[in-house]
Amino acid sequence: MINAMNRRKFLKLGAITAPLLTVKNSVAGSLQTTTKPIVISTWDSGMPVNEAAWKILAAKGRALDAVEAGAMHIEDQVDCCVGLGGYPDRDGIVTLDSCIMDEHANCGAVAGIERIKHPVSVARKVMEKTPHVILVGAGAQQFAVENGFTLESAGLSESSKNAYTEWLKNSEYTPVINIERKKQNGPFAPKFFEDGSANHDTMGLVAMDIHGNLSGAVTTSGMAFKLHGRVGDSPIIGAGLFVDNEIGAATSSGTGEEVIRICGTHLVVEFMRQGYSPEMACKKAVQRIVNRDTEKAKTLQVGFLAMNKKGQYGAYAIQKGFVF
Ligand code: ASP
Q1: Is 42 in the pocket of ligand 1 (CB under 6 A)?
Q2: Does the beta carbon of 99 sit less than 6 angstroms from any atom of ligand 1?
Q3: 178 lines ligand 1 (CB under 6 A)
Q4: Helix, coil or strand: residue 250
Q5: Which of 3, 18, 31, 321 is the most buried (most CB within 10 A)?
Q6: Which residue is closest in CA terms to ligand 1's atom 9?
């Protein structure tokens, strides 16, 4: 999905009407040249996320503010995928991961934070108010509360409660298989790549503002029914998100362990530095994962999404069905 239009056009349309782009995993062709500002985000749930980000970009705001607003939008959805409404870990606790990075390579992250609605904003506070990059668990929560964030209830959303109850029947710990949202698929059941779609829903977005500056943010509840304490790629700078204002920015979704192993988004940005288009850079990073263990790669999904300094964008995923 992409939003890139000049202000006049934006005012005329009054709303985002951009199409959702499906990534054909094995076919090149999503190279685009566009004008700034621009915002792209992972998955179809990124449509309203882009709208929230676009309000800031269209008003000549900073990309950093735009990506934070976009991530906050999805974190606000009570019965959706990545925030407190997301699926819990195997102990029934929702733990959230998030990071943010700006055009000056300033970055902040929180991992395994509980009962805080907007981990992306806590990540931004870590970036702006501390000499550190990552805060985890109880320390991250303590920092959030000290900085005025409300401690929300520990309860699960309705669909998460149902999903967890169902999962407990077998308690199968299958970290490579995420679970598709019940509301999209009827009765809760592990589903994997039937119909070519992927079962991941981490929200990653990157934006370039009118001044040509890049920023990115990621927010997620991580892999469903993960081990308590498990941290994926999403809050790790260079894995779930990387921004280099001279070159471009990238984000990822999918099995975080595989992304961490190759420093995925840093790798994508480095491929763009070598002159590869965003899509080719994503493809080469995906190939790195596939080449390491081709058999294993058949059982998992990882998708990268990237934008370069010219505003060209592209994506590539191991399996079909990754949309942005
Ligand atoms: N990348 C996320 C993680 O490993 C999961 C996802 O994208 O759904 O935590």
Answers
A1: no
A2: no
A3: yes
A4: strand
A5: 3
A6: 222
pTM given for the model? 0.86
Q: Calculate how far, in angstroms, residue 201's C-alpha sits from the geometric centre of ligand 1.
A: 7
Please state, in angstroms and rounded to a whole number, the distance separating the CA atoms of residues 22 and 174.
27
* Number of domain units in the chain: 1
| 255 falls within a domain | yes
The residue range of the domain holding 76 is 17-317
Quote the tokens at residue 110.
Answer: 């929180």
In a domain, 102, yes or no: yes
H-type helices in the chain, by residue range? Answer: 7-13, 46-58, 63-75, 119-129, 137-146, 158-170, 182-185, 256-261, 264-273, 278-292, 294-297
> Is residue 3, in this structure, part of any structural domain at all?
no
Q: Which of 202, 220, 251, 255 is catalytic?
A: 202
Q: Residue 300 Cα, ligand 1 centroid: separation in angstroms?
A: 11
The question of whether 130 is a catalytic residue gets the answer: no
Could you tell me which of 107, 148, 131, 144 has the C-alpha nearest to residue 249?
107
pLDDT tens, position by position, 198-207: 445 799 999 9
113 is a domain residue: yes
Give the CATH number of the domain where residue 263 resides: 3.60.20.30
CA distance 163 to 249: 34
Q: Reduced to 3 states, what is the DSSP secondary structure of residue 167? A: helix
Q: What is the pLDDT of residues 217-252, one digit of tens each?
A: 999 999 989 999 999 999 999 999 999 999 999 999
